[in-house]
Design brief:
Layout lengths: L5 E4 L9 H16 L3 E6 L9 H13 L6 E5 L4 H13 L3 E4 L3 H13 L28 E4 L6 E6 L3 E6 L7 E3 L7 H11 L4 E5 L6 H10 L6 E5 L2 E2 L15 H6 L4 H9 L13 H7 L10 E2 L2 H14 L2 H14 L10 H8 L6 H9 L9 H7 L2 H16 L4 H15 L3 H13 L7 H8 L1 H9 L3
Parallel strand pairs: 1-2, 2-3, 9-10, 11-12
Antiparallel strand pairs: 4-5, 5-8, 6-7
C-alpha cells in the first residue's frame, strides 16, 4: 500500500503571513488535497526573541482567510523541547554528535586564518572525536554546543521535484550545531525531528532552504529516518523584477483582505505564481485541487503582477452575489463611520458599480458618495461646469422635480433638456455626474440619478446653480 501523502506548512512567527509564505502554504495544501493526503500546520517558534503571539495569530488569521484548512496542528516547536533533547541524547550516545567547547573568539580566529589562506571559512572539527585523536581537556565552567558529525566523504544528492537533481559534496559542509550551550536545539535540527515524527512525505518550501536540505538529509539518515521528497519553490519578484518586499506595497496576506481583494481571487492568483495548467487563467479552488501537481511548477522565479491580480479580482467581484458584496461594502463603510441605512439600498448600488471596480475598497469608494455629502473639487467644477451646462442643469433640476422617479422618466428628462439647449449627452451627463458624486465617470447616469433619490439629487444640483 502506498504511503499516504503528508505535507506541512511551517512558518516562523516573526511577522505577518507574507505572499511567499502564503504561496508555499497553498501549494502544500493543494498537493495534499489532490492526493487525498493530510496537511499539517507547524509553528517554528524557537526564535524566542523575534517570535510573538501576535505574529502567530496573524499567520492563523491569514490561513483562515485563505481557507487553507489543516488536518493536524498547529504544532509549536517550543512545546516539543523535551523531544528534541531526547534525539540529541540519542545521537550523542551513538557517537553521531559531540560536544564542542570552542569559544566564539576561537571560532572567529579560526575563520580569519582560513580566509587569509584563501580557504572557505568553516568549523575545522577541532572537538570532533576520531580514532587516535586526542581531544583537548574541556574548559571548566563552559557549557558546550552539540555538533552533528556530518559525513566527511561522498555527497548528498536528491531529485528535487522542482529544480531537478541536486548534489552537494559532504566535504563542503562542516559539523552543524544542533544544540546551543543552554540546551536549546537549533532550527535545522528541530525541522528534521519534526518532519520525521510527523511522517512528512513531501517538503514543499522556498528555495532559500536549498542549502539547508543536504544537512537535514544527513541528520535524517543518521537517525535511520525515511527522507521525504523535496520541492523548492523559486522566489517571487515584484513588478520591477526585484525580490518582492515591503516597498512593493501589500505583501501581507491580510493587507490584501484590507485592500479589498476576494479570497478566491488571491488563491487563484497565488496558484499561477510559478504553476500553470495549460492556458487556464481563471479556475476555482476545486479545479486547482483537481489539477495540481508539482510537475508544472517552473524552477524560474515568478513575477508578481499587480495588474493581473486586479484583473482577476475584478472578474471575481463581477461573479459575486450582490447581497454578499453589499454586506462586505456595509462593513467597509462602517469602518469609515458611514451609515448606509438612510440612503439607497446597498445591493442596488453594488449592482450598478460592480462591473466597474477592481477591488472591494473601490466599490466602497464609489457608493460612499450616495451616503455622504460629497463636494466636487474646484478643478472639476472649472473643467466641467460652464454657462451652457449650468443653464441646462438648472432646467434639468426643474424636470427632475416634476417627473416620475423612474429610470425611463429620468432618461427622458435628460434628453429633453439636451435637445432644448442644443447639447450632446456628455455636455449634460458629465457635469451632472460631477455635481452629484464628485466624479466625471459613473455607470449610466439615469440609473445613478434614480438610485440617489429625488431629494438628494435636487439638493446637490441647486447649490451650484
Amino acid at each position: 500500500m502506498a504511503t499516504p501523502v503528508r505535507t506541512r506548512f511551517a512558518p516562523s512567527p516573526t511577522g505577518f503571513l507574507h505572499i511567499g509564505g502564503a504561496r508555499t502554504a497553498l501549494f502544500s495544501w493543494a498537493f495534499a488535497r489532490h492526493h487525498g493526503g493530510e496537511f499539517v500546520l507547524r509553528i517554528e517558534d524557537t526564535d524566542v526573541e523575534r517570535s510573538t503571539p501576535e505574529a502567530v495569530q496573524a499567520i492563523l488569521d491569514g490561513m483562515s482567510w485563505l481557507a487553507l484548512d489543516w488536518d493536524e496542528g498547529p504544532f509549536y516547536q517550543m512545546q516539543r523541547m523535551d523531544r528534541y533533547r531526547e534525539v540529541v541524547a540519542e545521537l550523542l550516545a551513538k557517537g553521531l554528535a559531540y560536544p564542542c567547547y570552542a569559544s566564539p573568539a576561537e571560532l572567529d580566529e579560526m575563520r580569519e586564518a582560513q580566509r587569509k589562506r584563501g580557504e572557505k571559512p568553516r568549523y575545522d572539527g577541532r572537538w570532533r572525536p576520531a580514532p587516535g585523536k586526542t581531544l583537548p581537556t574541556p574548559p571548566a565552567g563552559v557549557d558546550p554546543v552539540i555538533r552533528f558529525c556530518n559525513p566527511t566523504e561522498g555527497a548528498v544528492a536528491w531529485d528535487d521535484l522542482v529544480k531537478g537533481r541536486i548534489e552537494i559534496a559532504n566535504a563542503e559542509m562542516d559539523d552543524l550545531i544542533i544544540s546551543r550551550p543552554d540546551g536549546t536545539p537549533t532550527y535545522n535540527f528541530c525541522v528534521v525531528v519534526d518532519d520525521w515524527d510527523m511522517k512528512i512525505t513531501h517538503v514543499i518550501r522556498g528555495d532559500d532552504h536549498v542549502n539547508n536540505t543536504p544537512r537535514q538529509i544527513n541528520i535524517l539518515r543518521a537517525l535511520g529516518a525515511e527522507v521525504p521528497a523535496y520541492a523548492h519553490l523559486s522566489m517571487i519578484l515584484g513588478d520591477d523584477g526585484q525580490k518582492l518586499s515591503k516597498r512593493h506595497g501589500a505583501v501581507s496576506v491580510m493587507q490584501y483582505h484590507e485592500d479589498g481583494y476576494l479570497t478566491e481571487a488571491v488563491i487563484n492568483y497565488l496558484a499561477r505564481l510559478g504553476w500553470s495548467h495549460g492556458n487556464d487563467e481563471v479556475f476555482s479552488r476545486d479545479q486547482l485541487v483537481n489539477w495540481f501537481d508539482l510537475d508544472h511548477i517552473t524552477p524560474s522565479a515568478a513575477q508578481f503582477n499587480t495588474e493581473k491580480l486586479n484583473w482577476l479580482n475584478a472578474h471575481y467581484i463581477k461573479a459575486t452575489d450582490d447581497k454578499v458584496l453589499a454586506a462586505d461594502t456595509a462593513s467597509r463603510l462602517a469602518r469609515r463611520q458611514v451609515n448606509p441605512e438612510n440612503g439607497p439600498a446597498l445591493d442596488t448600488l453594488v449592482a450598478l458599480y460592480k462591473e466597474r471596480v477592481s477591488t472591494l475598497n473601490e466599490l466602497a469608494d464609489a457608493v460612499e458618495a450616495f451616503y455622504v455629502d460629497v463636494r466636487p473639487s474646484e478643478d472639476l467644477l472649472t473643467q466641467h461646469l460652464n454657462d451652457a451646462s449650468r443653464a441646462a442643469l438648472a432646467d434639468l433640476a426643474g424636470e427632475f422635480d416634476a417627473c416620475d422617479w423612474q429610470r425611463e422618466a429620468i432618461s427622458a428628462a435628460i434628453k429633453t433638456t439636451m435637445k432644448a439647449h442644443g447639447l450632446k449627452m456628455p455636455q449634460v451627463a458629465i457635469p451632472l455626474r460631477v455635481l452629484l458624486v464628485g466624479q466625471p465617470q459613473t455607470p449610466a447616469i439615469d440609473a445613478v440619478v434614480e438610485a440617489m433619490g429625488r431629494a438628494t439629487v435636487l439638493a446637490r444640483l441647486r447649490r451650484y446653480l
